[in-house]
Structure formats: C-alpha cells, structure tokens
C-alpha cells in the first residue's frame, strides 16, 4: 500500500485469465482471521525495527470471472494492536497514534487490480486510518488455491506495502521523533469460499 496511487482503466481483454490460475473459483471468499496475520514494522532510532500486529480483523474477497475485476474489503479493530509490550501497546492506542476511542476501526477498500511484475499482482485501494483516507497499492503474491477443512476451497496470498504514518495523522507525540515515518505492512492471508 504505497501512498502513491496509480489508476488504471480496465482493458477489454484480461491480462490474466482464470484458466491460468489452477483452482480459481469466482465468487465471495471470507478472510480467515485464525490463519491470517496483519503485521507491521517501523524503524526505531534509525537502527532497529519495532514489529507488531493486529489480532482482530475481517474481510471479504470477491473473485470475478476476469481476475482483474476482483475486489477486496477489510476492517481492522485498532484496539487489537499488539507489539508484545503492554505499555507500548497502550501508547499506540492513545491519541498520539491510533486514537482508538475515536477511531475504533481502520478500513481498506480496493479500487482496482493490475498485473504486476512476473506472476504477481498490484492491488490498488483506499486505506482509512484516523478518519484520513489515502490511496495505497499493495504488491500481492498469490500462493494458490487448495482444499481445506471439510473440502472447503481456500486461497492464500501475501501482500506488502509501505505507508507514511504522518500522512494519516499518526504523529506519535514526543515519541514520534524517535520513529521512522515509513511503516511496512505485511498481510499473510488465507480465505475460504463463502
């Protein structure tokens, strides 16, 4: 999710066909929070990375007949942030960072899918944090389709992006001076056929 947006108009002929993706099934897929992770990392004092994750989230992937017309929506509960340090987690929940009392959710809504380099994809969308919405682009690596519990169809992928925290009003208060502006986000997602 880079905060640099690039819009693209759909082409009449898809650059990727469903036939090129073994196991591809058009329709709605629900993100499985038990087998998925939303993680982030930010540089501290310019020398080390502080890592964390969000434990409560949900989302839906709608795969279209033309894969490049598919869509994604997701909602993340901001209070579920965890960095394995209680004092730091409470500070991140405060008005200096995510201000969870006023903004209990972050949301993502896709606006387009493009073919990326090699076999990957680019997922364009809008990320809303602290009431600020910015365009973002995720580099998406599709791991494939398979069968899960009771034969239910599953899909897995990894998506990465970088955002500027100040673009979303996340200053960090006095601690903000010790943190890098760029946050790396990594999503490891498993979804099952709804």
Automatic annotation (TrEMBL):
Residues 28-192 form the Lipid/polyisoprenoid-binding YceI-like domain. Pfam families: YceI. It comes from Streptomyces crystallinus. InterPro entries: Lipid/polyisoprenoid-bd_YceI, TTHA0802/YceI-like_sf. It comes from the Bacteria. This is YceI family protein. Transmembrane segments: none annotated. Belongs to the UPF0312 family. SMART domains: YceI (SM00867).
């Amino acid at each position: 999710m880079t905060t640099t947006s690039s819009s693209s108009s759909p082409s009449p002929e898809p650059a990727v066909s469903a036939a090129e993706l073994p196991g591809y099934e058009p329709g709605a897929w629900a993100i499985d929070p038990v087998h998925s992770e939303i993680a982030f990392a930010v540089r501290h004092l310019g020398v080390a990375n502080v890592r964390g994750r969000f434990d409560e989230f949900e989302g839906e992937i709608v795969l279209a007949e033309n894969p490049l017309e598919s869509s994604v929506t997701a909602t993340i509960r901001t209070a579920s942030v965890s960095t394995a340090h209680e004092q730091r987690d409470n500070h991140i929940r405060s008005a200096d960072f995510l201000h969870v009392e006023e903004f209990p959710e972050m949301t993502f809504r896709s606006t387009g899918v493009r073919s990326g380099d090699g076999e990957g994809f680019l997922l364009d969308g809008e990320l809303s944090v602290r009431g600020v919405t910015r365009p973002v682009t995720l580099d998406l690596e599709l791991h494939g389709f398979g069968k899960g519990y009771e034969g239910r169809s599953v899909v897995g992928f990894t998506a990465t992006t970088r955002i500027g925290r100040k673009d979303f009003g996340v200053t960090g208060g006095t601690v903000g001076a010790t943190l890098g502006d760029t946050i790396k986000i990594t999503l490891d997602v498993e979804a099952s056929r709804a």
